[in-house]
């Protein structure tokens, strides 16, 4: 069974596992895109699942998208 995350738990996860900062203040579910601020100052949006499971923890400038095969 999947864990239900709260906005406070997500904020703590972001602080402990990345250099980014969570700007979103409300969490409605796994498909919601959250707003983050990268260490370089750029803002970017990702779902928490992509942020957590796919290691997409920086903006597109600092961590460019992978090229498709």
What does this molecule look like?
- This protein has a domain at about 5-55.
- About 25% of the residues lie in helices and about 15% in strands.
- It has two helices and three strands, in the order αβββα.
- It has helices spanning about 5-15, 50-55, and strands at about 20, 35, 45.
- A three-stranded antiparallel beta sheet has the order 1-2-3.
- A hairpin with a 5-residue loop joins strand 2 (about 35) and strand 3.
- The radius of gyration is 12 Å and the shape is globular.
- The mean pLDDT is about 90.
Bin the helical content: 10-25%
Helical run tally: 2
What's the story with the biggest beta sheet?
3 strands, antiparallel
Sum up the overall morphology in one term.
globular
Low-confidence stretches: none
**Which whole number gives the mean pLDDT?**
91
Counted beta strands: 3
What fraction of the residues are assigned to beta strands by DSSP? 15-25%
* Distance between the ends: 33 Å
| Gyration radius from CA atoms, angstroms | 12 Å
Structural class: alpha+beta
Compressed to H and E, one letter per element, the order equals: HEEEH
The side-by-side strand order for the widest beta sheet comes to 1-2-3
Organism: Ureibacillus manganicus DSM 26584
Protein name: AraC family transcriptional regulator
């Amino acid at each position: 069974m999947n864990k239900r995350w709260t906005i406070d738990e997500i904020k703590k996860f972001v602080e402990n596992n990345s250099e980014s900062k969570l700007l979103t203040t409300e969490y409605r579910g796994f498909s919601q895109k959250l707003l983050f601020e990268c260490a370089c100052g750029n803002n970017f949006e990702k779902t928490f699942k992509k942020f957590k499971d796919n290691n997409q923890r920086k903006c597109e400038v600092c961590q460019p998208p992978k090229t498709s095969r």
